[in-house]
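I am writing to request your help with a piece of structural work I have in hand. I am sending you one protein, given as its amino acid sequence and as whole-number tokens for its backbone shapes. Kindly check, if you would, that the fold set down in the tokens agrees with what the sequence suggests. You will find the record immediately after this paragraph:
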Amino acid sequence: MKTKFLKLSLLALFIFTASCSSDDDKTEETPVVTTKVSNIYAPQTGGQGQPVGGEFTKFSFSQNKTVTDDSWDIAFRGTTIIVNGGAKISTTDTGEPERKGQGAVSIVSGTFASVTAFPAAATFVQDKDKVSAITTGSGNGWYNYNSTTHIVSPIAGKVFVVKTHDGKYAKFEILSYYKDAPAAPSETSVSPYYTFNFAYQANSTTTF
């Protein structure tokens, strides 16, 4: 009787230990949430026929803040947006940072919520000499420009899926180019202040 009881006790101990070990082996995944970022100031010098310059404002998706080191994923200056991968668009632009990461971007048509899977690897592009991964210019890039009102309006239905500087993924959509994101910006609205939504995928999956 004692032997049978001992065997049952050892079996119960084994099952309990295995269960605890299994629980410990599970990797706790970070949930993907949508975050709204407001008023990222991205000034530039020059323009209006003069050479454009000034420092880019660099942003990290994982840290959810602007940074000054090489941990940035995207950066803004005026209407120009760059990624931390590839090469400088202008080798003579002292305000444009060197690319130290493996970043790239794929532009997807659809609503922000509808983009749930990572695009094919072949669709991702990086900045390179004289070519921006996220093009500028009215209608061809991320915005439309009204030459009468001089308003810059983000093009609806453009979602940017970014491979971050360290090989993770994020998606973002630009909501406004003006301070405090007015619903109907006017010539008195202050720019360039970016407001955008983003979602960062920290886990080893291929979906948001």
